[in-house]
Amino acid sequence: MDNKLKIHLLVNEVAGNGRAKKALKKTTALLINENINFDLRKSTYAGEAIYIAQEYGDQKHSPTEILLVIGGDGSLNEVLNGIKRSQNPKTPIAYLPAGTGNDFARAANLTNDPKVLIDHLQQEFKPERIDCGTFIFPDIAPNKKYYFANSFGIGFDAFVNHNSNISKLKKVLNHLSEGKLIYGCNVLATVTKQDTFIVDIEKNGQKFHFDDAFMVTTTNHPYLGGGLPLLPSAKIDSHKIYTVVVEKFSLAKLIKLFINLLKDGSHVNDPQFHYFETNKVKVTTIKKEYAQVDGEEIKRNIFNINFSVSSFNLLR
Ligand SMILES: Nc1ncnc2c1ncn2[C@@H]1O[C@H](COP(=O)(O)OP(=O)(O)OP(=O)(O)O)[C@@H](O)[C@H]1O
User: Does residue 32 sit within a domain?
Assistant: First the structure.
């Protein structure tokens, strides 16, 4: 068997407003310098990394071959889904975060230094099982599974995400590396626009009904929107997912909650903040709402989703 490390780079150069490009440059210089064999694929359009990863997972690889993804949370999401759809869904993924928000890397405590990552991969390549979330739309495609590394949000957070993506401010603030600030500004800009909606939650046979939900987000870890600790107690290695429901509040209360969220996480004690820790949960809405999965916008819709916890193999 060939024991020499071979790295297959899969890069989204658009990620992180230039950060992924820089990280790629640093990584390839390092690989050349250390005489490590590698090849390079770049995604040329949104969604292509799913197919590239699936194709990679469909092939047989020696244990010394490593798929290394460079990009943000959206890129990781695509690769995760591609690998899971492939013939070898346990194919490990190595990931160098180079996006805007990098919430997964924050939660999993991953390095963004290519040297640290490559040095570690050279020393050992023992994949670790890491939690992710999975979901199906039982009414539309009961056999088609989708995966998320971070969260699936409906309502306010998705609306903020939508506004962040189209915001001119994003470009300016991205250059200042202030993902949190972009999100914070858009939180304030969106709060008066988001209507309430009905949400039904079903968990282990128990049903919960909310008439005036503002957002319902199922998450794999604490962070949202580039480092905001929505649910500080969520653990990425708990083999659980967490569904957070926030009910409508005033602008004044939002500001208070937002300060508490940044200060000490005490926003979770508010009576309008609810969360469910589980390995399986059903979330139903009855009005068209914005939605996001791992920070990528999905079509505004009415949702009936079955979520559960899953895992993937991560090399770090
Ligand atoms: N060549 C490309 N041209 C345009 N978009 C692309 C291309 N390759 C990938 N994408 C898309 O770029 C989007 C953003 O990528 P990604 O989420 O990785 O970066 P980010 O938004 O900067 O980081 P984060 O999600 O961590 O905030 C993804 O939706 C992905 O599908």
Answer: yes
Task: Tell whether ipTM is more than 0.85.
Answer: yes
Q: What is the pLDDT of residue 172?
A: 57
Domain membership of residue 316 (yes or no) is no
Are both 202 and 290 inside the same structural domain?
A: yes
**pTM for the whole thing?**
0.93
How many independent structural domains does the chain possess? 2
Question: Which of 75, 96, 299 is the best mutation target for the ligand 1 pocket, counting ligand atoms within 8 Å of the beta carbon and taking the most?
Answer: 75
Q: Can you tell me which residue has the tokens 């998705």?
A: 158
Name residue, tokens 């990280």: 23
Q: Would you state the pLDDT for residue 171?
A: 57
pLDDT along the chain (316 residues), means of 10: 82 95 98 97 98 97 95 98 98 97 96 96 89 97 97 94 70 57 73 88 97 96 94 96 93 86 93 96 96 94 97 96
Q: Provide the CATH number for the domain around residue 94.
A: 3.40.50.10330
The residue length of the chain stands at: 316
Ligand 1 centroid to Cα of residue 72, in Å, is 7
pLDDT of residue 238: 96
9: CB partners within 8 A, 6+ apart: 24, 27, 28, 38, 39, 40, 41, 68, 70
CA of 146 to the centre of ligand 1 (A): 18
Per the listing, tokens 């009936």 go with 304
Nearest ligand 1 atom, CA 104: 26
Residue 180 forms part of a structural domain: yes
Q: Are residues 110 and 184 in the same domain?
A: no
Residues 139 and 37 in one domain: no
Are 216 and 285 in contact by the 8 Å Cβ rule? The answer is yes
